[in-house]
Design brief:
single chain, mainly alpha
Length: 110
């Protein structure tokens, strides 16, 4: 790592967004605990499984959004598997025709 390395400015923005999201999540959790304490015991017991299901669903949605964002960044940088496979040379192409040069593939001959 170089000594003059600096994080991009967008990193500071993203860290602030994450901090705000954490503070809001903590506040929401405190509100749910206060609401749960004021409920009758029969209704309060139903909240446990429902909150775990909600937590699981939100974790899945968050993971899907993070995966889509990561794939979007990789696609924009042309680093996805789709872009890597585009320039890949198979064993048969290398064996019978030798190393290919740009524009020397089977599809470029038409």
């Amino acid at each position: 790592m170089q000594p003059q390395f600096r994080f991009p400015r967008s990193t500071v923005f993203l860290m602030c967004v994450i901090l705000v999201a954490l503070v809001l999540a903590i506040q929401k959790a405190q509100n749910i605990v206060q609401m749960k304490e004021s409920l009758p015991p029969a209704i309060a017991t139903a909240w446990g499984p429902m909150l775990w299901g909600l937590l699981f669903a939100s974790a899945l949605i968050l993971a899907a959004v993070a995966a889509a964002a990561a794939w979007g960044v990789l696609f924009a940088l042309r680093r996805t598997g789709l872009h890597r496979l585009d320039g890949m040379q198979t064993w048969a192409e290398h064996h019978w025709r030798g190393p290919t040069k740009p524009g020397n593939s089977f599809f470029d001959r038409r």
